[in-house]
């Protein structure tokens, strides 16, 4: 019998256990892990006096943050702004659990991604991509800090990967935060690289576009 056939047979014989494991991962483990992640990010936002939010609900992530200085006017609502970072999967593949992505158990990754409101600034996508590519060329420190640039979309991503064994131990000890050091490192990277983005953010803020001035980006 071939190795592939052996694996197939093993999966068939354990279908019930596999199905229960997936359900447990999605319905029990994932909310616990991302509850701890949300607490880490929320505490960091408050400590650094940034703006943002971190929520997880039924596998839906809504995690974004930005420096308070990235705004077009003092009265601009917190949820509006010229740029921010948010967490998402870094590939187009569909996965059934954020935890498997977080731990690198498949081909996808998770991380902080940049979002610049180039549409609100009245830019065409090709013009934005040209600006982003120019910024990438002039700012090699971003690559050195761990940011990966997608020149096709004009966005940067900072991957976050948590070691699966450390997370398993942390769950056993009821101390998930102890396994989230890679997340804390990534957050600190965001904090210490703010000045590397300021020139690009300024080009968005200085737009004369009426939408931007109205605060409805």
Q: Can you offer a commentary on this structure?
A:
The protein has 217 residues and is of the alpha+beta class. It has helices at residues 3-13, 15-48, 98-102, 125-138, 141-145, 164-172, 181-192, 194-205, 210-214, and strands at 50-57, 60-67, 83-89, 110-116, 148-150, 155-160. Strands 1-2-3-4-6-5 form a 6-stranded antiparallel β-sheet. Strand 1 (50-57) and strand 2 form a beta hairpin.
Give me the secondary-structure topology:
Blueprint: H1 3-13, H2 15-48, E1 50-57, E2 60-67, E3 83-89, H3 98-102, E4 110-116, H4 125-138, H5 141-145, E5 148-150, E6 155-160, H6 164-172, H7 181-192, H8 194-205, H9 210-214
Helix pairs in contact: 2-7
Structural class estimated from helices and strands: alpha+beta
Number of helices: 9
How would you sum up the major sheet?
A: 6 strands, antiparallel
Strand content: 15-25%
Secondary-structure element order, as H and E? HHEEEHEHHEEHHHH
Query: Residue ranges: pLDDT <50 for 5 or more in a row?
Result: 208-217
Tell me the helix content. 40-55%
Secondary structure: number of strands = 6
Task: Report the mean per-residue pLDDT as an integer.
Answer: 88
- Major β-sheet strand ordering: 1-2-3-4-6-5
In angstroms, what separates the terminal alpha carbons?
Answer: 61 Å
Radius of gyration: 20 Å
Tell me, what's the shape? globular
């Amino acid at each position: 019998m071939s190795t592939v056939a052996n694996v197939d047979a093993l999966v068939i014989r354990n279908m019930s256990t596999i199905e229960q494991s997936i359900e447990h991962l999605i319905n029990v483990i994932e909310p616990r892990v991302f509850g701890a992640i949300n607490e880490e990010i929320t505490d960091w936002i408050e400590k650094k006096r940034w703006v943002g939010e971190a929520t997880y609900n039924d596998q839906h992530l809504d995690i974004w943050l930005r420096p308070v200085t990235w705004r077009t006017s003092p009265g601009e609502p917190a949820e509006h702004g010229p740029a921010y970072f948010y967490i998402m999967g870094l590939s187009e593949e569909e996965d059934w659990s954020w935890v498997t992505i977080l731990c690198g158990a498949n081909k996808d990754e998770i991380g902080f991604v940049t979002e610049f409101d180039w549409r609100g600034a009245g830019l065409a996508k090709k013009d934005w991509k040209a600006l982003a590519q120019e910024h990438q060329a002039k700012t090699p420190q971003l690559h050195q800090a761990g940011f990966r640039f997608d020149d096709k979309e004009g966005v940067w991503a900072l991957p976050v990967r948590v070691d699966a064994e450390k997370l398993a131990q942390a769950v056993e000890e009821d101390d998930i935060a102890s396994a989230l050091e890679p997340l804390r490192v990534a957050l600190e990277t965001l904090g210490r690289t703010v000045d590397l983005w300021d020139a690009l953010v300024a080009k968005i803020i200085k737009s004369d576009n009426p939408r931007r001035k109205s605060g409805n980006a």
